[in-house]
Amino acid sequence: MEKLTTLAVINQKGGVGKTTTAINLSACLGVLDKKTLIIDADPQANCTSGVGFESRKINQGIYDCIINGVDPKELIVKTKSPHLDLLPSHIDLVGAEIEMISIDEREFVFKKIFSNLRNDYDYIIIDCSPSLGLLTLNSLTLSDSVIIPVQCEYFALEGLGKLLNTIKIVQSRLNKSLDIEGILLTMYDTRLRLSNQVIEEVKIHFQQLVFDTIIHRNTRLGEAPSYGETIIMHDASSKGAVNYLNLAKELIIKNISTNSNSSVEKNIKVNGF
């Protein structure tokens, strides 16, 4: 039986394909008949614009849920992509972390506000802020597991140890059931020997934590957000669309599995970092 899953897409490094993954994984899950919600928890609001909504025209978003107590169900919008909804963001979210400091149990704000959305969706995907601040901590506290995009480039492993340690702290203090869904290798260029070296290095360190699917560097993937479209709507035959469709299938198969020892197998190892 498939479990209901809330996934945080997280990396404190920018430019690793975090938002691209949140948007296109969600869209591909929708195409595979899984009712999916994207929560845009990044003040840059790239997820919001990437699925066709101008953030400056968004009157209310996730900020209003956190600070003003607006019901998130009232703010969810349907996207052009099948079975895909969005809880939008705008630039006001930048100030939310400062305002949240004075809130009691500030690490559990998301959990209190968004937990009731779980029963309405097969998957909830959170696009996290590229930092390890209060918004990201809240995303991790709400989530069942995390996806960590890592680009196939020289500085790929830089900061990964710190991120994994943060996840371990959240596991021990805030969300004992938090798991790592997988490390996703992105921006793979078959022409570069360095890309293959990075893949080898990541697989040596993290073994079964690494997704089988690798996201290739793809022009169509880069241009789709400028049209406000997911890759599956922009060009379903492109390499990027095929990659994210394969990732969505891999994720669904993982979650249908009743493998009870997955939490034991997925203990976070930060040896060598």
Give the total of domains. Answer: 1
Q: CATH first level: which class?
A: Alpha Beta
Helix content: 25-40%
The CATH homologous superfamily is termed P-loop containing nucleotide triphosphate hydrolases
Strand content: 15-25%
List how many beta strands DSSP finds: 8
Across the major sheet, the strand order is 3-4-2-5-1-6-7-8
Q: Total helix count? A: 13
Low-confidence stretches: 258-273
Overall 3D geometry? globular
Q: What is the element layout, followed by pairings?
A:
Elements: E1 5-9, H1 18-31, E2 36-40, H2 46-50, H3 62-67, H4 72-75, E3 77-78, E4 84-87, H5 96-100, H6 109-114, E5 123-127, H7 134-142, E6 145-151, H8 160-173, E7 179-188, H9 193-206, E8 210-216, H10 219-223, H11 231-234, H12 239-256, H13 262-265
Helix pairs in contact: 1-12
Note down, in words, how this protein is organized.
The protein is an alpha/beta fold and 273 residues long. It has a single domain (5-265), classed as Rossmann fold (3-Layer(aba) Sandwich). The chain is built from 13 helices and 8 strands. An 8-stranded mixed sheet has the order 3-4-2-5-1-6-7-8, sandwiched between helices. Helix 8 (160-173) links the parallel strand 6 and strand 7 (179-188). Helix 1 packs across helix 12 (239-256). The termini are far apart.
